[in-house]
Amino acid sequence: MSELLGVPSQVLFGQLLLGLINGSFYAVLSLGLAIIFGLLNIINFAHGAQYMMGAFVAWMLLQYAGVGYWWALLAAPVVVGITGVVIERLLLARLRNADHLYGLLLTFGLALIIQGIFRNEYGVSGLPYGIPPELAGGRNLGFMFLPNYRAWVVLASLTLCLATWFVIERTRLGAYLRAATENPTLVQAFGINVPLLVTLTYGFGVALAAFAGVLAAPIYSVNPNMGADMIIVVFAVVVIGGMGSILGSIVTGFALGIVEGLTKVFYPEASSTVIFVIMILVLLVKPAGLFGRAA
């Protein structure tokens, strides 16, 4: 079919692919936010800055140490995750029993500091990061051209999201995490180090953001503002899916990316606001979000 709904098929499927790629980043980032909020009750506004740090760590590893994409995909989440562990132990742990607002204000301040440091050091123009040679090129599917790297981003994001959901919802470790959220005193009575569990959980949520940053580096330029541009949309995704809902973040992230892509085809003027319109409608009908539970 050369045209679908009056739109050339290559244009339609191209925008769908673009929406699916954006949805992949939305899903991974909102998953990290949902884990941190759902298990730790922290609204992590520094998530966008940590996403940006993941991209910059990959770029610096290549630039200064000659470490390529595949090793950076493993190393960058670990490096940024360790910074998350330090932040949780030194700062966020002191606010564990305080109102959510204090954690939000603290992480918002951290985001501004991190972005300011990178902006002063590297400026605001984007730094290129090449696609790994193994994923260069693409394949013609007949109705559209599919770049190999973009297919990899969707596959890697989906695999990571499903694996994380399985660990949290279907394993003993996930049961400990959920129990520690509900009744930390009881869990600690069984010999489990709850503070360490909380710290590592925050570090893992931050590492997810860094992983998304490495995936994004070859597609978007590595830029100190890349996290600030993404975090507001990701927060909207989390609200729509349900604050703290793991499955809601994954499903909503991919779905809203596709909706955004389709909007660019049929009504481009609304593409930058459609997610926020959906958020308002969802909150009016179901304030806890599509997959959330009322407090």
UniProtKB/TrEMBL annotation:
The chain crosses the membrane at residues 12-35, 42-62, 68-87, 99-118, 149-168, 189-219, 231-259, 266-285. Belongs to the binding-protein-dependent transport system permease family. LivHM subfamily. This is Branched-chain amino acid transport system permease protein. Its main location: membrane. It is found in: Cell membrane. It comes from Pseudochelatococcus lubricantis. Keywords: Amino-acid transport, Cell membrane, Membrane, Transmembrane, Transmembrane helix, Transport. It is a multi-pass membrane protein.
